[in-house]
């Protein structure tokens, strides 16, 4: 499916009726490495389309053309927050990004497609992580084994235990996680339907409008029929296993 459709769905709310999007994210919690330690300015790398973290951050977005608009909005948001001097944005293919730098935190929230899936994305993140650093990854998971009728819609994911197996196989230890509850998962998905519907009303003659309308129908149906019963969402904090640290 076109990356453009996902970016439209998750774009900022176009009018006050969509302000409930701002309530869809769970409250922030301190990460384990922050507890009991003095504040620092960690070096962070973030791939994909997550919201910027505050710190000495390099955010790499995958995409070209119109997608530069999202990078521009990220820069504008950083200026609003007064942290633009602490952030570096690189517009390019996050799946092909390389650097000799090493970071305290490497983050990819909801964009593991950049590496062809969770395992491939962890392989991309690992070389940029300092030996004592943390990786932050957001990924859906199965709530138990889904029925055969749902496997086509939910392929590529696995149970929480299976997700942990993938972390272990990639050389990581799971040390913390925050899971979305059913209501916040509904709010995240359903708010996109309003955003997409608004966009279609405002852009009826766009060349992608028919395909985007099909995408909206499919997204809504998939969540109602399969997603909310069989799919969860989590943000996982990972640490390189001691024997694999270099």
List the helices and strands and how they pair.
Blueprint: H1 3-9, E1 43-47, E2 56-61, H2 68-81, E3 87-91, E4 103-109, H3 118-125, E5 129-142, H4 148-154, H5 160-169, E6 172-179, H6 182-202, H7 209-230, E7 231-240
Parallel strand pairs: 1-2, 1-4, 2-3, 4-5
Antiparallel strand pairs: 5-7, 6-7
Helix pairs in contact: 6-7
Q: What's the short story on this structure?
A:
36% of the residues lie in helices and 22% in strands.
Characteristics:
7 helices; globular; 246 residues; Rossmann fold; alpha/beta
Please tell me about this protein's structure.
It is a single chain. The chain is of the alpha/beta class and 246 residues long. The protein has 7 helices and 7 strands, in the order αββαββαβααβααβ. Residues 14-43, 49-56 and 60-66 have low confidence and may be disordered.
């Amino acid at each position: 499916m076109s990356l453009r459709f996902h970016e439209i769905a998750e774009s900022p709310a176009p009018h006050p009726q969509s302000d409930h999007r701002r309530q869809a994210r769970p409250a922030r919690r301190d990460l384990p490495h922050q507890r009991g330690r003095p504040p620092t300015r960690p070096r962070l790398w973030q791939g994909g389309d997550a919201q910027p973290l505050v710190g000495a951050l390099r955010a790499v977005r995958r995409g070209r053309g119109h997608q530069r608009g999202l990078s521009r909005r990220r820069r504008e948001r950083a200026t609003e927050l007064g942290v633009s001097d602490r952030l570096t944005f690189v517009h390019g293919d996050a799946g092909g990004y390389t650097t000799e730098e090493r970071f305290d935190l490497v983050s990819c929230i909801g964009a593991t497609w950049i590496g062809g899936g969770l395992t491939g994305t962890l392989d991309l993140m690992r070389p940029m992580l300092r030996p004592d650093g943390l990786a932050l990854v957001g990924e859906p998971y199965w709530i138990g084994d889904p029925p055969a009728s749902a496997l086509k819609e939910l392929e590529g994911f696995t149970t929480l235990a299976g997700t942990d197996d993938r972390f272990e196989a990639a050389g990581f230890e799971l040390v913390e996680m925050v899971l979305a509850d059913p209501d916040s998962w509904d709010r995240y998905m359903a708010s996109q339907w309003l955003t997409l519907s608004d966009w279609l009303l405002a852009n009826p003659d766009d060349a992608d409008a028919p395909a985007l309308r099909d995408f909206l129908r499919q997204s809504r149906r998939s969540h109602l029929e399969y997603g909310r019963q069989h799919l969860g969402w989590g943000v996982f904090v990972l640490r390189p296993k001691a024997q694999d640290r270099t």
